[in-house]
UniProtKB/TrEMBL annotation:
Gene3D superfamilies in the cross-refs: NAD(P)-binding Rossmann-like Domain
Name of this chain's protein: SDR family oxidoreductase
Family according to the record: Belongs to the short-chain dehydrogenases/reductases (SDR) family.
UniProt keyword Hydrolase, yes or no: no
Listed InterPro entries: KR_dom, NAD(P)-bd_dom_sf, Peroxisomal_Beta-Oxidation, Sc_DH/Rdtase_CS, SDR_fam
Residue intervals of the Ketoreductase domain: 5-190
Keyword Lyase: no
Stored SMART domains: PKS_KR
Length: 300
């Protein structure tokens, strides 16, 4: 589906990024593999080459503009062009807000949110230089869509990425570029920090299959997520843009955009007292859940 395409995948030395890089290479694309770990990046490049694909490494932390420019330059230097940017790089510094330092917050936002911004900007500039067309897939997370205890920094970054997706889709449409957010759910080392999934992550890393109760609830492996990425990068998804699409286990989801759930008007405006009068009956029934809706049996 991706023959002749050139794709950059940030943070692709391990986990979901590795699965993304291997999948797009298997679909025919040349890949720029990025990671801060040179050995991990080299392993993925070697795996792709061994399978008959083409890949080159760029070892650098995502966030700075210089890294984004280097990733695009590597694609052009080695493969002649750039067709897609996948902004996957990220890290965690999980703590409740009272224990979260400025450094914990800033590092996560620098990598996830600023890194997505700088890489998207560099890719869009190259797409325009090439005459238009291209794909941006920005990696989100359920933590940006629902509450995720102990992840104020990560949730803020991932929510920002989905917001960025919608705006970039509007800005890039005139250049024939699609922009979508991919919201993956997979049993990776990052998920292992969640106690309910730690045992399942260990089992998957040991080569065991994902339990059916988890797959049915929308939780699977990194390899289960990759096909949606390949689809979004392909010509078949030319009409799909501005969306947040989730995948995990046996399930694909379409996330709604924020929308008004209820409204009440009062001529002349409102006082606190008048709001208190109408809120319980006219607005309270429409308040939205904010915690994850994963079935309890999926975590046992």
């Amino acid at each position: 589906m991706l023959a002749g395409r050139v794709v950059v995948v940030t943070g692709s030395g391990r986990g979901l990024g590795r699965a993304y890089a291997r999948a797009v290479a298997a679909a025919g694309a040349a890949v720029v593999v990025n990671d801060v770990d040179a050995d991990a990046a080299a392993v993925v490049v070697a795996e792709i080459a061994a399978a008959g694909g083409r890949a080159v490494p760029v070892v650098a932390p995502v966030g700075p503009t210089a890294t984004a420019d280097a990733l695009v330059a590597a694609a052009v230097e080695h493969f002649g062009r750039l067709d897609a940017m996948v902004t996957n790089a990220g890290l965690l510094r999980d703590r409740t807000i009272g224990k979260m330092s400025d450094e914990d917050f800033d590092l996560v936002l620098e990598t996830h949110l600023r890194g997505t911004f700088t890489c998207a900007r560099a890719a869009l500039a190259r797409f325009r230089e090439q005459g238009g067309g291209g794909r941006l897939v920005l990696i989100g997370s359920p933590a940006g869509q629902r509450a995720s205890f102990g992840q104020t920094n990560y949730s803020a970054a991932k929510a920002g990425i989905v917001g960025m997706t919608r705006t970039l889709a509007a800005e890039a449409a005139r250049h024939g570029v699609t922009v979508n957010a991919l919201v993956p759910v997979a049993l990776t080392r990052m998920v292992a920090t969640i106690p309910a999934f730690a045992e399942a992550v260990a089992a998957v890393e040991a080569g065991e299959p994902v339990p059916s109760r988890l797959r049915e609830a929308g939780v699977g492996t990194a390899e289960d997520v990759a096909p949606l990425l390949v689809y979004l990068l392909s010509g078949a998804a030319a009409g799909v843009t501005g969306q947040a699409l989730g995948i995990g286990g046996d399930r694909i989801t379409v996330w709604t955009h924020p929308t008004v759930a209820a409204e009440v008007s009062r001529e002349g405006g409102w006082t606190a007292e008048s709001i208190a009068e109408v809120f319980p009956e006219q607005l309270a029934p429409h308040l939205q859940p904010y915690t994850p809706d994963v079935p309890a049996e999926a975590t046992r």
